[in-house]
Amino acid sequence: MVHAFRSNELPQTSHAALVSALRRPAHSYHLKTTFISLKGWRRMEENRIRSITGWFRQHFGKPRNDLEQVKPSKCSQASSSSSVSDPPLPSVLSSSFRSSLRFDVFVCHNDEDSDLAQSLTSFLEAPSNGLRCYLQERDCPAGGAVSTELLQAVQDSHCWLLLLTPNFVKDDWCSYQMHQVLSEGPMSQRIIPAVVNMPRSQLPPELRFLFTVDLNTNKDFGYTLVYKAVLHYLKDMSEKEKSSSASHSDG
Question: Which residue spans adopt a coiled-coil conformation according to this UniProt entry (predicted)?
Answer without folding.
Answer: none
